Structure formats: structure tokens, C-alpha cells
Amino acid sequence: GQCITHCPVGALRERDDTDKAFAALADPDTITVVQIAPAVRAAWGESLGLPREQATAKRLVAALRKIGFRYIFDTTFSADLTIMEEGSEFLAKLRNRENETFPMFTSCCPGWVRFLKSQYPDMVRQLSTAKSPQQMFGAITKSYYAKLLDVEPERICSISVMPCLAKKQEAALPTMDTAGAGPDVDIVLTTREIDRMIRAEDIHPGELPEEEFDQPLGVGSGAGVIFGATGGVMEAALRSAYYLVTGKNPEPDAFGNVRGMDGWKEAAIDIAGTTVRVAVASGLGNARRLVEALRKGDVQYDFVEIMACPGGCSGGGGQPIAEGEERAGVRAETLYGLDNISALRFSHENPSIVQVYRDYLDKPLSHRAHELLHTAHDAWEMPGAAAKK
Ligand code: SF4
User: Fold this and answer.
1) Is the CB–ligand 1 distance for residue 232 below 6 Å?
2) Ligand 1 centroid to residue 117 C-alpha, Å
3) Which domains does the chain have, with CATH numbers?
4) Which of 185, 212, 294, 295 lies 20 to 30 angstroms, CA to CA, from 17?
5) Residue whose CA is closest, atom 7 of ligand 1?
6) Tens digits of per-residue pLDDT, 95-148?
7) CB contact at 8 A, 120 and 273
8) Residue-by-residue DSSP string for 143-169
């Protein structure tokens, strides 16, 4: 049965899905495909007592292989895919400025999407239609990757490791089964849950050598990695938007002025003579202040990134909890450090992204990309809304 643990702040009951994951691993007919979110790599070692330098993504890959997961991939791949789709969507809106409502809001944080739907339903249409990296990954797994493996997508159990509790609800939305083989993401495990599985299997990751992600969905850029920090989605999107408009890469750190732990940041960016006004907020209190300022006309923006958790996903509700410590900033530094040393700094240069467009999706915003990678946020009701009617 399901074991229910309690949220450390006592406010939420936390669902534990590790039993489901162990059941999938035990079924010889099931092919497990795992994705690891960007922010998880900056935090998973904390509750296992691993020093920061040892708790790498590659060492987590080794631990997951030891548990028995079959294919281990990186959500930074689909973060890059999100950038391609969302960046193209934003540029299309800019070209059609008179007929569009600005700002466009990012849509990768389900906590923020639910907040906007419940508090400001008249603005839901301003959300990007791009799905979150978790959901894009699931849709690609059960379509393109099932084809590559030459198996029925129904045999695949798609599992994500996330810094987030809200991702469990996102994966269960009725709109998130686009590949026609059940939910695109079958099981969502938090960082705390994957740590529990590692402990339950008596694995000591500190003693394991690092291992590589599987291919081709295990390749992500530094731009994909910084999705895990507040401002990272915006920065990654601007890097590729600049390229899509000018045909040239900007300096990789050209848009670094949206970094940092401030709850509400803004910048004006020049892209080929067009000024783009961007803002970044994290924490729902800041999100509310920003939205209220927009509605009063006190501020004007073209593109806004919002994350529900203060500091973004690195401070997410599914991450290890250290008593009295706020770790979002330290973890974000880890992510920016990884971006800085990455050989790939741009989503559009990720060879696996180039491959999936060439072989399967055609181009950003294509018919197939729309079917698999975009969603209508007004196609589902807030849970409880029907009962209230
Ligand atoms: Fe989840 Fe928080 Fe990240 Fe939003 S900011 S996706 S709620 S971890």
C-alpha cells in the first residue's frame, strides 16, 4: 500500500511513490525510463551526507543504475526543447505585436500555473503554451524514444526525479497523455524520495564511480541546467531567442543580469534593435505583487518568468530539508557553475535537440511539436472548481 509521510512543515500530506517505482522495477515486462531534473543534481547528496563535489549528476546516474533503472536520461535535454518551443512562440508573438497581449508568462512551474488559474483566470491565455520540461520529456519518451527502441509505448514506465511536489499533480492532469499510452509521465519521485530509495537499497553513492547518462536523451546544455535556478529559464530563452533573430550567438553570459536571489528582477534587453522588457519573480508573494503591478499598469513587460518556490526549483518543496537553512542560493551557484564549465551553452546547439527536430519534430511549432509539446492551460479545471459550482 501507499505509505503517507508528513510534510516537514506539517501543512501538506506528502504522497510517497517509491512503492510504485519499486513495483515497476520488479516487473520484467516493464522498461523503466528515468529523467533527472536540473535542480536535483544540486541537492540530492545533501541528505545522504555526500560532499558537494561528490554529489554529481553522473554519480546519481550510477546510483540509479544500481537500483535497476534501465535508461537514465536528463531533463536538461527537454529544458533545451522547451527553450526551442517557448523561444519560438515568444518571437512569433513579438512579430504579431498588435494582436497579442503581453507579457507572455513562462509555464514550466505547475505551482505558478495553478496560482494564475485560480487567482487571475483572465490572464491564463498569456501563459506560454509550451509544456514543462518534465512533460515534454514524457511525451518524447512515449513517442520518439519508443520508436527508437522499437517497443510499444505501453511497455515504458516513464519516471521523473523532481525537486517538486506540484509536479506529481502536473503529471496526473488529463491533458498530459498526448502519446496515447497512458500518462506521459507515469511516476514522479521527489529528490527526497529518490534519496530514500538509495538508502533502502543500501547503496553508498560516495563509493561509486561516476557513470554517463544514456543517449540520445541524456544530453543537455548549460542553458538547460540553469532552469533549476530563478532567472535561468529567462536567461536560457534569451540566449536562443537572440540566435533565432540574428543568426549569431550572443556572449553566453550576456543576459546574466537576471541572475540572483532577489524575489523580483527586471531587465531591458536589446535584440537586433528591438528592446525586450523582461522580468523574473520567484515565490508566490512576489508573483502576486508583480501581477497586481501589471494589472494596474505600473509596469510593462514583454516576457515574464515566474517560479512558485523562492529561489526557483533549487529551493523546491521536494528537495532535502536542512533544519533552519535556506539552500536555494547555494544550489543555484552549483547550477551556474555547471553552466559556466559546460561545453554546450546554447539550447539550439544541443546535438540531441538538432537530431530530434531533424528526425521527428521537423521544426519548432510544427504540427507534431504542437501535438506533443504544447498544451491548452484552459483545457482542465482547477480541482475542486467543479464541486464548488
Ligand atoms: Fe515545482 Fe517549486 Fe520548481 Fe515550481 S518552482 S516547478 S513548484 S519546485
Assistant:
1) no
2) 16
3) 13-311+327-376 (3.40.950.10)
4) 212
5) 111
6) 999 999 999 999 999 999 999 999 999 999 999 999 999 999 999 999 999 999
7) no
8) IIIHHHHTS-GGGEEEEEEES-SHHHH
